[in-house]
TrEMBL record, chain A:
Stored CDD domains: ABC_NikE_OppD_transporters
Family: Belongs to the ABC transporter superfamily.
Residues in ABC transporter domain copies: 6-255
Function: Involved in beta-(1-->2)glucan export. Transmembrane domains (TMD) form a pore in the inner membrane and the ATP-binding domain (NBD) is responsible for energy generation.
PROSITE patterns assigned: ABC_TRANSPORTER_1, ABC_TRANSPORTER_2
Protein name per its UniProtKB record: ABC transporter ATP-binding protein
Recorded topology in the membrane: Peripheral membrane protein
Cellular compartment(s): Cell inner membrane
Automatic annotation (TrEMBL), chain B:
Subcellular compartments: Cell membrane
Protein's recorded name: ABC transporter permease
Membrane recorded as keyword: yes
UniProt keyword annotations, A-Z: Cell membrane, Membrane, Transmembrane, Transmembrane helix, Transport
Domain ABC transmembrane type-1 residue range list: 95-304
Record-annotated membrane-spanning stretches: 9-30, 101-124, 136-156, 176-196, 250-275, 281-307
Entry membrane topology: Multi-pass membrane protein
Leader sequence segment: none
Main location: membrane
Length: 330, 316
């Protein structure tokens, strides 16, 4: 344990909409230790991307954020734009979901790498070029020298995401946030990109947050998992503990919704019926209650708080946690 | 890239042929027989018929067209039957005036429009943005002759800073030439900048919403670099288009402005040719101006390719 690098304290993100305030992130607490990986899992619209934008201080202009985002001893929500700028790209980096749109189409790969390096590190052009070539080679791009002069559209999606990762790694960040880094890619490329991220994370001893809707993505690649639902963290545990015994029915349902290799052909997937609650009209009770097969009594009237289970690291927000050992990776 | 240029050049040929046909047909359809115009209304029918025969006017239109085209391909656009001046001489005498006016007007228009557009896009929705956007809208609805008169009144009549009308060739006295050119160019620019501003502003606002701008911010780049490199470059395509169209349009001369400020440009040559039924000059000038317009658009296409690599590589 080498200390807390990032701690999100009581983060609340609200977006004004014509139908009222949309609470995208609802009192979230999270910590990431230096050099560790956290997976944030949840279905579309659960607030995981808004949470990542809140950490990066890249929320839409109209959004309101309260709470604290402590990174490396500083509260990012109170930092001046100039200090924030010096931090972003330097010690706090991000990889976005869609490499087709996250690289500037009219600038060369080289420009987009070198500008980042020269912004934060005192390197001249030749040194920055050299570093760019090394980075491209490190993320598995063949003929890196020639790539510098190429434009994003000349590369495949997987290659572009590798470039985006190279950009993120360019200044040796302390924390890398990967927001659905493989969702927009072919299935065959997904594992490669995830393995690349995991390898670079270990090699550079950086902390990493992987945001995904796919529990399978975080399974072997994270130290801790936080499951989000309707803007709240509903279960948080070290990855092995979570897969050994998940307590929150939502986590169980998420896992059950993954296709299994050993299932008989034509077995219907147990999808989670219904849909998440309207984020502009928060429910009084547990937000998962309407879709939960264990819901009863208090679930519809009181909001369960995230609290400790048997072990200090395993937290969940549920009145009727799953008691029996969930058959982890059935 | 070479293939791209060649393909674009090939497109130009049919366009130019179509333009030449249209020009010729429209000129032929104008009311008033050329022979009558030359001979005056005292002419006898026999004299008219003889002249028509001499000029080939009694031949079918397509024959006359090919004759005209044949001469043009040899560099002979014909000559005015009034002054005896060839079309090429008349045009080359006046093109420097119109060209200089057009360049100055575009430069001033861009110098006003581009910085305002960038400032507005960066602060979209602010009081400044709303003020500039609505003034641009107001400026769009001011006709050229009105702003010309107001500018003359202010700078020439009241302040005596600049001459109201007249022209000195740039080779004779560059300073005096510029003094004569400033007001007409400014008049045109006042009509140009709102279009430039509005187009670039909305393109930049759209670009600033893109993922790659979020990533540029996440990379910790300076706001100026995000604005001028990451947002401006991909937003400049439409700007190039309308600048190209403006320039193409002004190649044909700014008829009203050239008339008000008494500048001997292409616009006044054309108007004069229409008043005096000088069809040879009219046809030739219209064809040359149209060709200039087409070539300008070709240059715009080339600039696209320079600005956007996706077009260059045929991916767009």
């Amino acid at each position: 344990m080498s200390g807390v690098l990032l701690s999100v304290e009581d983060a609340l993100v609200e977006l004004p909409t014509p139908r009222g305030n949309l609470r995208a992130v609802d009192h979230v607490d999270l910590t990431v230790d230096a050099g560790r990986t956290l997976g944030i899992v949840g279905e579309s619209g659960c607030g995981k991307t808004m949470l990542s934008r809140a950490i990066l201080q890249l929320l839409p202009k109209k959004a309101r954020l309260s709470g604290r985002v402590m990174f490396d001893g500083q509260d990012l929500t109170r930092l001046s734009p100039e200090k924030l700028r010096k931090l972003r790209g330097r010690s706090l980096a991000v990889v976005f979901q869609d490499p087709m749109t996250s690289l500037n189409p009219v600038l060369t790969i080289g420009t987009q790498l070198i500008e980042t390096i020269q912004e934060h590190l005192a390197l001249d052009l030749a040194e920055a070029r050299k570093r760019s070539v090394e980075l491209l080679a490190a993320v598995g791009i063949p003929a890196p020298e020639q790539r510098l002069a190429q434009y994003p559209h000349q590369l495949s999606g997987g290659m572009r995401q590798r470039v985006a990762i190279a950009v993120a790694l360019s200044c040796e960040p302390k924390l890398l946030i990967a927001d659905e880094p493989t969702t927009a890619l072919d299935v065959t490329i997904q594992a490669q990109i995830l393995d690349l991220l995991a390898r670079e994370q270990r090699r550079r001893h950086m902390a990493m947050i992987i945001i995904t809707h796919d529990l399978g993505v975080v399974a072997g690649r994270t130290d801790e998992v936080a499951v989000m639902y309707a803007g709240r963290v509903v279960e948080r545990a070290p990855t092995p503990a979570l897969f050994k015994q998940m307590r929150m029915p939502y986590t169980e349902a998420l896992l059950a919704a993954l296709p299994k290799l050993d299932a008989a052909p034509h077995t219907p997937l147990p999808a989670i019926s219904g849909r998440p609650p309207d984020p502009t009209r928060p429910l009084k009770g547990c937000s998962f209650a309407p879709r939960c097969r264990y819901a009863a009594g208090r679930c519809n009237t009181d909001k369960p708080v995230l609290s400790r289970a048997e072990t200090a690291e395993h937290l969940y927000a549920c009145f009727h946690p799953i008691e029996t050992t969930a058959s982890g990776r059935a | 890239m070479l293939f791209f240029v060649a393909r674009k050049l090939l497109y130009i040929v049919p366009v130019l042929i179509a333009v030449s046909i249209l020009t010729f047909v429209i000129a032929s359809l104008l009311p008033g027989d050329l022979a009558y115009v030359i001979l005056g209304d005292q002419a006898t029918p026999e004299k008219v018929a003889a002249l028509r025969h001499d000029m080939g006017l009694d031949e079918p239109i397509w024959l006359r067209y090919f004759g005209w085209l044949w001469h043009i391909l040899q560099g002979d656009f014909g000559r005015s039957f009034r002054t005896g001046q060839t079309v090429l001489d008349a045009v080359s005498e006046r093109i420097p005036v119109s060209f200089e006016l057009m360049m100055l007007a575009e430069l001033i228009g861009l110098a006003i429009g581009v910085p305002l557009a960038i400032a507005c896009a960066a602060k979209a929705g602010s009081a400044f943005d709303r003020f500039v956007t609505s003034s641009a809208f107001g400026m769009l609805s001011v006709p050229t002759f009105l702003s010309a008169i107001l500018l003359i009144y202010l700078f020439a009549v009241e302040l005596h800073w600049l001459p109201a009308t007249g022209y000195v060739p740039i080779a004779e006295d560059p300073i005096a030439n510029l003094r004569f050119m400033v007001l007409p160019a400014l008049t045109l620019a006042l009509a140009e900048w709102p279009g430039i501003m509005r187009v670039l502003r909305s393109d930049m606002i759209a670009a600033l919403q893109e993922d790659y701008i979020a990533l540029a911010k996440a990379k910790g780049l300076k706001p100026s670099r995000i604005l001028f490199v990451h947002a401006l470059k991909p937003s400049s395509l439409t700007l190039v288009t309308i600048t190209g169209i403006n320039i193409g349009r002004l190649i044909g001369g700014a008829v009203i402005v050239e008339t008000i400020f008494a500048l001997p440009g292409i616009g006044r040559l054309l108007v004069g040719a229409i008043y005096t039924r000088d069809l040879i000059i009219l046809q030739g000038v219209v064809l040359l101006v149209a060709a200039g317009f087409v070539i300008m658009n070709f240059i715009v296409d080339m600039l696209y390719a320079v600005l956007d690599p996706r077009i260059r590589h045929g991916h767009a």
